[in-house]
Predict the 3D structure of the following.
Amino acid sequence: MRYILILFFLSSVLFSSTFDDAKKLYNNAKFIQAYEKFYILHTHNKKNNYVTIYLAKTSYNIGEFEKAKKVLLPLYKRSHNSEAGLYLAKIYFYEKDYIKAKKY
């Protein structure tokens, strides 16, 4: 039991550290490096809304709209996250799909 608690604590610390590093890269407009870190975090935490939204935002900022939509759509469907809706609207507007943009 003790080892499980230690492993849980270590994984929480590593997650927090990696998320903070990725967010710092994002805030410094180093979107490709941030994308790589957020992608790794997302593969292990697909239900974490913060990781998902940052992965989508970095995808958006590097012009990978399909990748952004791929993670934003499930997030929006499960939680109606307003930031996810905003980025979906921006993507659809950019793609000139005004009907879909209006949904969000």
